# Entry
Amino acid sequence: MAKANSNTDMDGEDRDDADGVQIDLISGERMDDLASMEKVRTILDGVHDGNIVILEEGLSPEEESKLIEVTMSEINPEEFTGIEIETYPRSDAGSGLLGRLMGKQESAKLTVIGPADRIQTLHKDETLISALITRR
Amino acid sequence: MGLLTGLKKSLTQLFSGGPKQRRIGIYGPPNAGKTTLANRISRDWTGDAVGPESHVPHETRRARRKENVEIKRNGKSVTIDVVDTPGVTTKVDYAEFMEHDMEKDDAVRRSREATEGVAEAMHWLREDIDGVIYVLDSADDPFTQVNTMLIGIIESRDIPVLIFANKTDLEEASIKRIENAFPQHETVPLSALHGDNMDEVYDKIAAYFG
# Structure
């Protein structure tokens, strides 16, 4: 059942989410300007507000590691049970020895992150992520 | 084993004057059989267990280390520290523990400890692990985000990794599915519970981490 909740959007405006689910699509350009912890904070602040965060270019493995660690530290049994995260499966292209020696990262992939109690992955393959998003 | 990893290992050995005793972390999702495997390895070579096993997820909520596990293969001996880590996940809901006949207070406490344990496992991976045994339940879908992320994190740190397809004794087990999920790594089938295929397990551990 939907519950009225005061929420803050990415521009700092308060809103009420009784009528829907906020989806933040964050460009690679916006994330490029942020340090690793700022990226993690941006994601988790959105998720804590009940939003679905979609990253155009995903996170690096190091940032994913931090995201897991910070998420665990913020789980609260009565309020926040963690995150659901989905990315297209990584392709091997660009992640080989030569790519790594040249400092080249494999091409980043779109990533969907949401509160674990609001998003459920229905299907995932190399080209499609299908998710069910519920209101609180 | 990757070229970079092999080079790093050779240089480390060259400058340290010999092979270093390596800490091998047993990683994987909850309930893959990590502690059962850690206990099997530890009992086979030292006679002691590492920790309690259970079908309830997150039974292991602290990383546990068994030092000086000496594995003898083909006339050579390899000594490693085995680190059994809590199952990694991105979510912990105390309600899941209540499905295992746990009172709410116990379930809440267990969920808090589980979150601390996952964070601890990630910290070990970042700071203190020289090699990884990644354990998967052969009867489960390996194409999960947590598996993909963890293998990606391990690869990005150039840590040697072996994939262990555990629980091959289960009827629904599919080793091929795990091989297909991570074709860039060697997959070793086993049943840690029944001790099936442990000779190959020890051969691979000695070859990769020795």
